[in-house]
Amino acid sequence: MTTLLFVVTGADHWTLKDGSTHPTGYWAEELVASHRTFVEAGWDVVVATPGGVRPTVDQGSLAVDANGGDENKVAELKQYLADIDDVLAAPAKLEDQTASSFDVVFVPGGHGPMEDLAVSPVFGSLVTEFLDSGKVVSAVCHAPAALLAATRDDGSWPFAGYELTGFTNTEEEQAGLADKAPWLLETRLREGGASFSSGEAWSPHVVVDRTVYTGQNPASTAPLAERVVAALS
C-alpha cells in the first residue's frame, strides 16, 4: 500500500508586513480535494501538523463567493471536513515523522504554510530527505512556500533548478493581499532559483519536474492529486 504524509499547516494567521495578522489556516478545497483523492485511491494517509496541533480552516475558503457562488460545493466541503474531524482533531506530530516511513509527501495550501512551514527547519530537513531519496514531493497553491524551508549544509536550496508552480503574484494581487504581504510566493521561488511556470489566473495548472509535483491554485488541487496517484499506481 502506498503511504502518504499529508502535512497541514498549524498556523491560524499570517503575519503581514505591517505586523498585523490576517486570519488564515488551510484552504478547504485544497485539503478536501487532495485528501479525498488519496483516500479513494486506497492509500494510507497520515495527517501531520507542526506540534500535532489541530489545523485551522481558513473561514474565507468556506465562503460561497470563494467557491464560484456554488452553495452545494461549500456544503460538500463542510461535510467532508466533518466526516474526517476525528483525523483533524488528533494529527500526528510533524516532528516525529521520517521520510523512510512514506512514499509521498503532500502539502495543501492556504496562507498558513507561509507563516509556519516556510520557516520550519523540521519540515525543511524532512522534505529534503524525501527529495534526495527519490520520493514524490507535492504541494499546491501557497504550499510550495514550505519548500523554501529546505537548505543544504552548504546553504544551497535543494529545489533550485526545478520547474515549479504556485500561487502567482497576479493571483495574490487579484485576491487583494499582495500589497500587504511580507513577501510573494512566486517572487521567492524565482529568487531561490526555481523555474517558475504559471497558467491562466485561477485555472488549473500542474507542473511535474522529476519527482516534484506542484499545482498553481485551488482549482489545480484535484488534477494535481490525480497526477500524483497516477504516477504511483
How would you characterize the overall build of this protein?
The chain starts with a strand and ends with a helix. It is globular and about 45 Å long. The protein has 233 residues and is α/β, with parallel strands linked by helices. The protein is built from 8 helices and 11 strands. The mean pLDDT is 98. The strands form 3 sheets. A 7-stranded mixed sheet has the order 5-4-1-6-7-11-10. It has a two-stranded antiparallel sheet with strand order 2-3. Helix content is 32%, strand content 17%. A hairpin with a 5-residue loop joins strand 2 and strand 3.
Give the structure's gist in a few sentences.
By secondary structure, this protein is of the alpha/beta class. Helix content is 32%, strand content 17%.
List the helices and strands and how they pair.
Layout (H helix, E strand, L loop, with lengths): L2 E5 L5 E3 L5 E3 L4 H13 L3 E6 L21 H13 L1 H5 L2 E2 L10 E4 L4 H4 L5 H12 L3 E5 L22 E2 L4 H7 L9 H8 L2 E2 L9 E4 L2 E4 L5 H12 L1
Parallel strand pairs: 1-4, 1-6, 4-5, 6-7, 7-11, 8-9
Antiparallel strand pairs: 2-3, 10-11
Helix pairs in contact: 1-2, 1-8
Mean pLDDT: 98
- Shape assignment: globular
As laid out across the biggest beta sheet, the strand order is 5-4-1-6-7-11-10
Number of helices: 8
Which class do the helix and strand fractions yield?
Answer: alpha/beta
Overall number of strands: 11
Q: What low-confidence regions span 5 or more consecutive residues with pLDDT below 50? A: none
Main sheet attributes: strand count, strand direction, barrel closure: 7 strands, mixed
Termini gap: 10 Å
Radius of gyration: 16 Å
DSSP helix fraction: 25-40%
Percent in strands: 15-25%
H and E order: EEEHEHHEEHHEEHHEEEH
